[in-house]
Design a protein that fits this description.
It is a single chain. This protein has 9 helices and 5 strands; from the N terminus they run αβααβααβαββααα. By secondary structure, it is mostly helical. The longest helix is centred in the C-terminal third of the chain and has 33 residues.
Length: 254
Amino acid sequence: MFALAVLLSSLFIYNSSGVIDENAINEISAILKLDNFINVSGQGNDADALSYYTPKLVWVLRDFNYDLTDAKGRPIKPNDYFESALNDLGMSSQTSETNRKIRNCLIKYFKERECVTLATPAQSAYLKKINSMPEEALDQEFQRNLIGLREKITAKVSAKQLRGVNLNSRMFFAMLSNYIDSLNNNKVPNLALAWDSLIENECQEALENAIELYEIALKQFFLNRDDPQPAEDLYHIFKNIRDSALENFTRTTA
């Protein structure tokens, strides 16, 4: 499910509570198996090649009530803290080999990544009834954090892409069907084959539409013409109809 979520997402939001420590890193260990469930080319995976298909990552830290500073006590931003945690700065002696691999996977697979912090939404006495509290009654800092997160998500979310191409609803559904069929048949989804299949389907759809437009234009021409036309005029008319259909096909498949 983790692999499928990554494959289908244009923006992958992962959340955890508190700081990014060794426990938090270990909790996302599913990423170590990502390349076991995704095949980029049919000839094994390369991290850089796989990162071309993975979404943007936003790591949300809930209940984060800490001042972010560097080793010299200077204020830093959440993204600086995130990169420091991923690059294992200051944690080498505490880091297991497994966690080093998890960090490397996060860095290699998610080229575009950032971190957002959310303060605790209310005092501990009110947390049990947090679901019934109106938003305006929540902690002021949490409200500011939440507004910032919403704006960030709105700015970053986009259509799902493969190889830099925005997928329309038909292409997305075909991609989803391809992945699910592979998983249901105990096969690893092959991204290169999925892409080829999408392109083939889109080209076939565009061809059928172009043929339909060509036939409709021909029928309209003959229905509106009772008098014979010179051969040269017919040639230019049919050429224009054909060129219009080809232009439609090219525009659709570009």
